[in-house]
Design a protein that fits this description.
By secondary structure, the chain is an alpha+beta fold. It is about 45% helix and about 25% strand.
Length: about 140
């Protein structure tokens, strides 16, 4: 090996760092856009599970472009629904805590009060405005 190889390696590592930073920024922008567009499109959606009504209150997005994959991965959307049916005051407090946790970055875990519905969607569909989830 020659010293020139070391210099080339250093340059390549710096270039990889720059590109990775750019990919992270683009992924973050796409994640925010997908979250906002999906929520705006499906805001007010109500689903019925086991005879109870749940209303959409938040969209969680998982979208990371890991460096070991050369293809663009799909966006994972989780639509978080909170119970809308009549509940007592204790249940309302539990629901409020869960809603707060999820809206501040947590992912929904299905419970009596919260339901998370998962969807995969291609990046092109989101960016072209063709978000069409089959919500039942």
């Amino acid at each position: 090996m020659k010293v020139e190889h070391l210099e080339e390696l250093k340059k390549s590592v710096v270039e990889r760092f720059k590109l990775n930073s750019y990919i992270i920024k683009l992924s973050s922008d796409i994640r925010i856009y997908a979250k906002n567009e999906t929520f705006n499109k499906y805001k007010g959606s109500v689903i019925i599970r086991d005879g109870l009504e749940y209303e959409l209150f938040c969209v969680c997005v998982d979208f990371n472009q890991w460096n070991e994959f050369i293809e663009i991965l799909p966006i994972n959307l989780i639509l978080a629904y909170g119970i809308k049916s009549k509940i007592n005051s204790y249940q309302k407090k539990v629901l409020a805590k869960e809603v707060d946790r999820i809206t501040h970055g947590g992912f929904p875990l299905d419970s009596k009060y919260i339901i998370g519905e998962s969807y995969k969607i291609e990046v092109e569909e989101v960016l072209s405005g063709n978000i069409n989830l089959k919500i039942e």
